Structures are given as structure tokens and as C-alpha cells.
Amino acid sequence: MINDRISDSFSRVRNALLVGKKHVSVLNSAIVKSVFKVIQEEGFIEDIKENSDRELLIKLKYDKKGIPVIRGISRISKSSKRVYYKCKDFDGMRRKDFSMFIVTTSVGVMSDREALRSGVGGELIGKVF
């Protein structure tokens, strides 16, 4: 049994990128689907499809030279140590490396940019760069 589906999904994506796969299957849940929807909206992955009730099929995105668009994906807030940010903390968080943060808020899962625009804070789920 997997306790943290988000960490498991991030690991599967990282491993698939290392071997150059075009698709990766991750375990389906509402939070995992929301997280990958945000990543797709930010342009880091091409498509998300429900393979079955239990699996999502993620189509990874590569540039014209075959280099993955996602250079790294990591979990920030974990079950052992939760990380929360206020809305004002998101201002200036984006770095020059075009990274984005995934935040779960009272209004749903969104990117740090959306959270700043909406004026809400929340738990920092992960970082994609």
C-alpha cells in the first residue's frame, strides 16, 4: 500500500524522464489528478488521460531536441513535515529557472502564480522546474 500518492507519482515521472519514456502511468486519486492538471496548465506536460479507475496516463512533454521540459519534480510538504505559505510569501518565489510551485488552498489545487493572483495561501505540495 502506498501512503503518499503524490510522492509516488513524482518518482514515477522522474524515473520515466530519466529513461526517455513518452508516457507514464500513475495511481489515480482526486489530489493526484488535480496536481497534474496544474502541471499541464503550466505547460510542463502534454496530456492526462484516465487509463482506468485506478490509473492516470501522463503524456510527458519534450522539446524539439528530445530534451524533457520537466528538468526536476520534487515534493516539498510531506506527511512528516507540512510546509505552509501565506499569499504574500508567493510574491518573488518564482526563480529565474522557470520553476513553479503547486499549492493546495481552500479553493483547490493551483500554481503559486494563481494563488498569488487569488490572494490565498496554503500548503506547498511540490515544485516543478
From TrEMBL:
A Pfam family hit: Ribosomal_S8
Any Gene Ontology biological process: translation
InterPro entries for the chain: Ribosomal_uS8, Ribosomal_uS8_sf
Any one GO MF annotation of this record: structural constituent of ribosome
Gene3D superfamilies recorded: 3.30.1370.30, 3.30.1490.10
Keywords in alphabetical order: Ribonucleoprotein, Ribosomal protein
Keyword check for Hydrolase: no
One of the record's GO cellular component terms: ribonucleoprotein complex
Keyword Ribonucleoprotein: yes
Listed SUPFAM superfamilies: Ribosomal protein S8
Family the UniProt entry places it in: Belongs to the universal ribosomal protein uS8 family.
Subunit structure: Part of the 30S ribosomal subunit. Contacts proteins S5 and S12.
Protein name listed in UniProt: Small ribosomal subunit protein uS8
Organism: Candidatus Nesciobacter abundans
Gene label: rpsH
